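Researcher: Quick sanity check before group meeting.
Model: Go ahead. Protein one:
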Amino acid sequence: MILLFLLFIFISHVQTFLHFNNNTYIEQLPSTYFYSFIQPKPVPEPYLITINEELMSLLSISMIDRRQMAEYLSGNKLLSGSQPAAMIYAGHQFGYFTSQLGDGRAVLLGQLNQWAFHAKGTGPTQYARGGDGRAVLRSSIREYLASEAMFNLGIETTRALSLVGSVMLPVRREAIETAAIVVRIAPIVAFIRMGTFELFSTRGQYDQVQQLADFVIKNMYGKTLTNKNRYNLLLIDIAQRTGNLVAYWQAYGFTHGVLNTDNMNVIGSTIDYGPFGFVETKLQGYVPNHSDDESRYAFDQQPTIAAWNLAKLRLALNSLIDLPKPITEQYEFWLHFNRTYDKLMRKKLGLTYYMQSDKWLYEEIIRLLDLYHIDYTRFWRQLADDIIPIEIQKQHWYSVYKQRLASEGSYAKKIRRERMNRINPKYILRNYMAHVAIGKAQKGDFNELDRLLHLLRHPYDEQPDMNDYAQVSPEWAKKIIISCSS
C-alpha cells in the first residue's frame, strides 16, 4: 500500500514538470502543407547539462529528477500533450534560392500557452536532406550562451530552456564530436520565417500563403483582423520590427553571420545562432563565419541584407497585397532602423536630447574605432568614466563631444555615468570565452559554462571577480574559426 502511494506521488510530481496545453501551429494549420509529424530519434544515456531556472520560473515549470528531465528534454520521452512536428520552409541562402528547407534536425514539441518549445538536435526528419539530424555540444553551448547573453542585453531573441548531452552518441563533423540537444522557447510566431512564405509563393500555393499570413496575424496580435488591408499592415509591421531588431544588433556590435531569409523571422527577434560574433577591434567587414567568402553577411552589411530579405518577403506576399494602397516596407524598415539606431547611439554617448549633428559624432567614433582597432565594447563602457584611448583622444570628435555634453549640463555628472552604464555593457560573449567553455565541456567540466551564464545574465553590472572577462580577447583568439557545421 505504501509503495502504491509513493508511486502515485512520483507520477503526480512528474506531471507537474511540464504539460503542453496547446499547439496552435498544428491546431490551426494542416500537416498537408505546413509540417510533418515526427518522432524524435532517441539518444543513448542523455544527461542534463544545464537548465534555465529563471525561464522555468517564468513559465511556472517545476523541477524534477535531472535524469527524468534529460529524457523529456532530449525527446526520448514525450511530455503530456506533445505532438512533435517538423516545420517546412524555403529560403534564400547566401543570395541563392533553395526551394525547400525545413526543420531537418529539430522538432516543435508543443506549446505552453503562447510559448512554443522547439528542440534542436533530435534526429533526422523528412527535411533532413541527407543530414544526420543531430547537433553537437560545441554549437549547442554557443546557442545557449548567446540567447541568454542577448536576452539580458535587452535584444529580442529566442531563449534556451535546457541543454542535454549524450557522450554515447558520437557525431561526425570536421571531427567526431559529442551530441547535444537544445530546447528553445519563444512565441510560436518566432518560428515562422520569411522563407516560410517564400516556400508557398514560389510553388504558386497562394491559398497557403494566405493561411500562413492569417495564422501570423492571429497569433502575433492575439486576434483575427478583418481589415481589408490587413496583409499590407502585416508587411509594414514586420518591416518595422525587423528595422528595430537590426538597429539593436548594430548598436551592440552583434553579427548574426548567416542572414538567410530562412534565418529571419516575422516577429523581429534573433533566431538560429550559428557562426555569430560580437565585433571587437574590427567593425567594417567583420565576418564571424569562415564560410562567408564574399563577406555577404558582414557586420556593416546587416541592415542592407535585412532590407534585401524584406524585399523577398514582399514578393512572397504579392498575392495578398492590396495594390491600390501604397506599400512602403522599405521606407518603414529604414525609418525604424535609423530612428532606433540613432536613439541607442545617443544613449550610448550619454546624451538626453536630439541634435541632428549627433549622427556625425557617433559615425566618426565608429570610423576611428575601426581605423585604430580599438575594442568596441570596452570603448563605450569606459567613455562613461572619460577614459579615452590615446589614439583618438586628440581627434576633433572629442572636443565636439565635450561641448555637446556641456550644452546639456551633464558633463562628468554621476547620473550620466549611471545612465551610460545601463546601456553600455561591461561584458559580452566574446568568441574565445565560448571556445574555452566548450573545450572544458568536451572533457566533462561544465563549471566554465555555469560561470559564463552567471556573467552574461548581468552584463551591465560591476562584477569585480569577473573583470578578466571585460578585457580584450587574447592574441590566440584571433585564430578561432567558426563555421556553419554544427
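Researcher: Fine. The other one?
Model: Protein two, sequence then structure:
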Amino acid sequence: MSRLRALLCGAATAALATAGLGAFAAQQASGASTDATALSNRWYAAAPYLMPHDNNPPDAGAIMDATGLKAFQLAFVLAPNGGGCSPTWDGTSPVSSDTAVASVISAIRAKGGDVSVSIGGYGGTKLGQTCSDAASTAAAYQQVITKYQLKAIDFDLEEPEYENATAIAHEIGAAKILQQNNPGLYVSVTTAGTADGTGWFGKQMLNEAKSQGFTPNNFSIMPFDGGFNGSAAQTSALTNFNSVLQSTFGWDAATAYAHEGFSGMNGRSDTGEYFSQADFQTVLDYATSHHMDRFTFWSLNRDRQCTPPDNNGQTSGTCSSVAQSDWDFAKYSVKFAGVTPPTTTPPTTPPPGGSCTAAAWSSSAVYTAGNTVSYGGHTWKAKWWTQNETPGTTGEWGVWQDLGAC
C-alpha cells in the first residue's frame, strides 16, 4: 500500500475508535460469543483499508451509516519490531493482548459489518521474514484468525519483503495452509502494480504460488506510485496483468479476471499522481464489466478532504489532497459490492453561533415571570419578579431558568 506509511505510521495516535469497547470487554468477561457476522465474499472483496492505530483513524460506524459500507480491511499485522514469530499490530502491539482493535471489530460487527485483516504492507518486518518456515508463519497468522474469528485475510506482499524469495515462499506456503485449515476463508494477495501488470518480483511471487499449487480468491495489483496518471493507465495495467495471470497459470481471460483484483489509492498518491472520483468510477466500470474479483483502495483514513483541499500539493495519510466530501471513495466499494449507497441529505443550516435574540440582561431593569434576556451567551427566562439578580448566580433555585446557549 501507500509509501506514506513508512513516514506517517511511526507515530501511533490514541484516536482509536472506542465504540464497542465496553461491550467487547463484557463479552470477553462472560465468555459470550463474538462470532463474525456472515457477509458474502463480495463484501470482503470490496473492503477498503483502514488503519485502526495510525493516521487519525475515522469512526467505522459513521462510515457505515453514511455510505452503506459493511466490510473493512484492517492494516497491518507484522512481526515484532524486536524480532520473533508472533503477530503484532504495526510491529508494536501484540495481537495476543490486544483489546483496542478488538473493540473496533466488535463495534463494526454490532452494526452488521465485518472485517478482513491485512498482513504485510510497505515497510516494517514481516512474519515471513522472521518465522523459520511456512508452517510457523501460518501458525502465527492462525492466532490472528482465531483471536478475531476472521472470515477473510489479505496478504499484502510488497517491498521490501517480496524481494526476499525465502520470505515469499513462507508467506505463500502459510496462505495455502490457512486456506486448507479454515474452510471458506477468503484470501486475497496484494502486490505492486506496473504498466505491464506487475514487476519482476510480482511475477516471481506468482510463480511461487504456481509451484506450491496455491490459488487464492484473487491476486490484486496496486496501480499507483509507478508512473500512473489517471484511470486509463490503471485499466491498461489491469489488462496486462490479466495476460500475466493467463500465461502463469494457464487460465483463459475470463478465469484470470475472476481471480484478479484492483487496489487503488484515492486522491494524490505518494509520487504525486492524482486519482479522482471519476477515475474510480472508470476503474469500477472496468472491474465490474470484466467480472473481476476485487475492488479496494488505500485508504479510508485518507477518504476526507484536506484543509486546504489540495493540501498545498502534498500527500497526506489522513486526507486525500483532492476536493471531496467525506467518504466519497468508500461509496465505490459499496457499489462494487452490489449495493446502492444511501443518498446524503444536506444538513440544515444552523443559526449563527453566539447570536442571542433576547435583549441583554440589565441590572437596573425590572423583570416579571416569563420575561427573557440574554446573558453569557445563553437565553434566560424569569420565573417571577426580579431586579438586579444576575442570571446563573444562584443555581437551580434562582429566579432565572437557563434556556440554553443562543
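Researcher: One line on it for the slide.
Model: The first strand starts at residue 49 and ends at 50.
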